[in-house]
Amino acid sequence: MNDIIVGMGELLWDVLPEGKKIGGAPANFAYHVSQFGLKSCLISAVGNDELGNELLENINKKKLNHAIERVSYPTGTVQVEVDESGIPCYTIKEEVAWDNIPFTPQLETIARSARVVCFGSLAQRSAVSWETINRFLDIMPDGEGQYKIFDINLRQSFYTKEILCHSLDKCNILKINDEELVTVARMFNYDDSDFQKVCRKLLDSYCLKMLILTCGVDGSYVFTADDVSFQPTPQVKVADTVGAGDSFTAAFISSILKGNSIAEAHKKAVSVSAYVCTQQGAMPILPAEYVK
What we know:
Blueprint: E1 4-8, E2 12-16, E3 19-23, H1 25-35, E4 40-47, H2 50-61, E5 66-71, E6 76-82, E7 88-92, H3 105-113, E8 114-119, H4 127-139, E9 147-151, H5 161-170, E10 173-177, H6 178-187, H7 195-205, E11 210-214, E12 220-223, E13 228-231, H8 244-257, H9 262-277
Parallel strand pairs: 1-4, 1-8, 2-6, 4-5, 8-9, 9-10, 10-11
Antiparallel strand pairs: 2-3, 6-7, 11-12, 12-13
Helix pairs in contact: 1-8, 8-9
């Protein structure tokens, strides 16, 4: 496999009152990339248990290439409880399989052939997966056509300034939402009164090729050293927003790899993520007009 697009990190079950659903941003990202006809691969780990068997069965049904190791830790789960007002509360289990992704010869081979990797902060909460992700980033080639996307995923207390700084040093594209931007600005002692200045500060400080900022219903931005692209968020009938951000990232980078401009890729990403919001679940099949 050459020019592989990798999603790397957490793979788990979201356990909701109505049942469980596959969860994990890397899986969502890799699946949507595959829908654009590109070679994607999911890197993670599951336990030697029934939940792990079910996850692998579901991933294989979706014909998603993967390097998922079986490890002697329970398969990851997130308990989702909904209060009387309909507000969800998440409890992410610790010391689970995706906290313990081993670095293997297979991962070294994939890293040397990777053109893109998308990784987050959540899977770096444990020493084992932190080391694996960072070894992968170090082995993966650098170059004009290589993209290391840090899609920040601030959950509970599972992040530190050290992890964020280290990941920013390793990546060349940062994807962040408006709430996360405020958290990062305050953590880094930036003035958070002007979000565009914060984005420019991060772009310049870490020599990023791009910074993608999503602001929910208020639209999204792609900052580069010389320009900024803005796209409004389409008004759609929302079924749920699960996985929409991951589909945005997948559509954007897939479009860039196919030779489209940043503005064209941005427009595609917005359209795809809006469609995903109209569907149940994080991994709907995209209609043909979205994957051209």
